[in-house]
Amino acid sequence: MAPAKKSAAKANAEPSKHNIMSFFGSAQSQGAATGSKTGNRSQSEVKPKATLTKVTKVESDDEQGGKATPKFNWAAAKAARLAGPSNPGSKAVPPAAVSDCLAGLSFVFTGELSSFSREESIDIAKRFCGRVVGQPSSKTDYVVLGDSAGPSKLAAIKKHNLKTLSEDEFLNLIATRKGPGNGKGLTEKEKKKRDKEEKAIRDSAKEMEAREKKAVRGEGSGVARGAKTIDPKMQLWTDRYAPQTLKEVCGNKGQVEKLQQWLNDWSGSLKANFKKPGKNGMNNFRGVMITGPPGIGKTTSAHLCAKLAGFTPIELNASDARSKKLVENSTNIQNTSLDGWMGGGEQTNAAGVVITDKSCLIMDEVDGMSAGDRGGVGALAALIRKTQVPIICIANDRSAPKMKPLVNGTFGLPFRKPDAAQIRSRIMTIVFKEKMQIPANVVDELITGVGSDIRQVLNMLSTWKLHNDTMDYEEGKMLAKANEKYSVLTPFNVIQKILGPYMFSATSRDTLSDKIELYFHDYSFVPLFIQENYLKTNPSRVRDLDGPRKALKQLKLMEKASESLSDGDLVDSLIHGPEQHWTLMPTHAVLSTVRPSSFLYGPGSGYGGPNAMTFPQWLGQNSKQNKLSRALGDVQIRMRLKVSGDKSEIRLSYLPAMFPLIVKPLMEQGSSAVDDVIQEMDDYYISREDWDTVVELGLGEQKDEVVLKKIATATKTALTRKYNSRDHPIPFHKAQDLGKVPKKLPGGPAPDLEEAFDLDDAVDDADDEKKAVDPDDIKLDRLIQDASKRKAAATKGKGAAKGKK
DNA sequence: GCTCCTCGAGTTCC
DNA sequence: CTCGAGGAGC
After folding, report:
1. Where does this protein have compositionally biased stretches of type Basic and acidic residues (predicted)?
2. Which one, out of A274, A389, A602, A649, has a CA that is 20 to 30 A from the CA of A705?
């Protein structure tokens, strides 16, 4: 019999037990049992182990103590629920008719319920085997409608003519619905589907069993390499139940198929010299790159595909081959891939692994490669360009700048996290094979709790199996919580949470410290996100108002929020300023994040439409500013030989003055002006990159977009080509001169030219002294020096540069 | 094999 | 919102 059915039967046989398990019963026993769940989370955080034993204990106590809650007091329950967070143990749900009474039903929750928070209501629905989805569709059975539901959801309800429930009706459904077992809970079709699922689970469990027996007898192909056969019972579950066939890899079906196709086509592609793109356009590539988060079967899939296509996978881990040299040596490009392959002889790599024409190179953790030696990724890219064996690279993030050299040479196969449904059947199979009884909704809870990490679910189950063979919803929830991955909320998630409609609503169970905690997920980013997005909500606080009143109230709220933000900024400067008052962090959290949100929280701050959350523009602008400032610094250092003035003076006075000399001619005369422009540039030591900077820093009529539109592409390429084909004067530093340079303050003006450059010109020195006395004397400005002198300086620089070489 | 539908994921840094 | 994977139905 399948686990789900078993548990239903069990629950029917022991109704009282079920009731207690599902957080009904008296307030005290419940408060103890579900301590960490019911409100006041931060304080009632009990050590997981202790909590778990406690649950079991309470359960058995009550069982002995007689039947619980024979009659449900609706009015009292409601009152208790409304008492809310201050009375956390008192929320109550009526006893369900059947434990899986909501099975086969899909729910959508929208709006604010009167006494349950969003998470709680979803949890309740799941507890009774209901299916909860986010978007209403024609497949949705019920929409549980609260206050101020989203307009798009209301539209969907109307469109699909969905049944809606209030909170009380929802609870009533739980109390009365007879579930799928009896009554009309399951249609014929649904029953069939369920049976099919169960059969599939049983079949694959049988298969697994058979395979293990075979392995024990030593017939297994892979396991039997060592002299000893390993008893599967001694293995870790993660090894024991590692996927053996592609069918057992969860999710990413499409990508895996593509990979197989590519490997199967390999010899053909090789013959065609990678000119025939093939079905997916993959056959132009000599390498593929699998990317995706850890623990989703990237490596496993690569190995299985390679084996299935008849290749011998050779795995090179980044930690084995961290440097460029090692990559080249250990893969032995020339010998193995070309000669070795042509000659048909066997070659071994540095690690002593035989490489033949049927080898397939799997480079794992490519991300980690360049940690020690920058050349690692580049060498790999070079290797891929000439390889005669397929290369599969595995990395976490394809778009990382590190991966740049690889991106063009490899076909990208992004893997995604499988969702709970995809993993469920496999876990259920294992559970069944291990003769454990765990209902599907509990398994789901475990899976989502650890973020779809199959290995972790298996670890949890194997540990659990040491003491128990069954697991109910409550226990599953505890176990998941105890093993919860340190949740990595991105700033986007944080913002959505804290500016969303639920965090500050009446039914919210989140304490102040919970909210502050959100800030600490990424304390340097979250405030920026708040600042960027705090005006994009429909504040719940003005929900009930209309017209000018609403506008006025909203403005007032905005004013308060912005004031708080600005206070937060003051605190921030105390933290990050010279005094480093880190103890002010919580204050900053409240002022920059929690308080502004408390005024303006509300719906419309998630995805969808014009209200989408945006990334803080500040960051983009800031990095742009830094970049340009750096570029400007380069320009100043180069021009310094000819021009006095610090960075800002260059920016304000000299660049606009240079514009008519080196940019405008190109706009007006096109290619014919290139020679003159280059001459001007050389006179001021301006390089080709600096030219770009000059354009980029233009404003108004000199704005880069305007300017670049007016310069023909041909002109620009002519400039680049001609510039690159010539020698140019290069200002350069003499070591002893640099040694003399006084230490300058960071951000201050760069040292003046005579100190830094090889320009032992007496006249210049004299110039400088005079200039110090009378900076306004226009004749002394280097910009207005006569042309012959300029030229002399230029050639001198040139000669010096050459001499140095 | 094709089409339609459902449903969740996605955006980034001194 | 928008896209694409995956599933159901024909």
Report:
1. 186-217, 725-737
2. A649
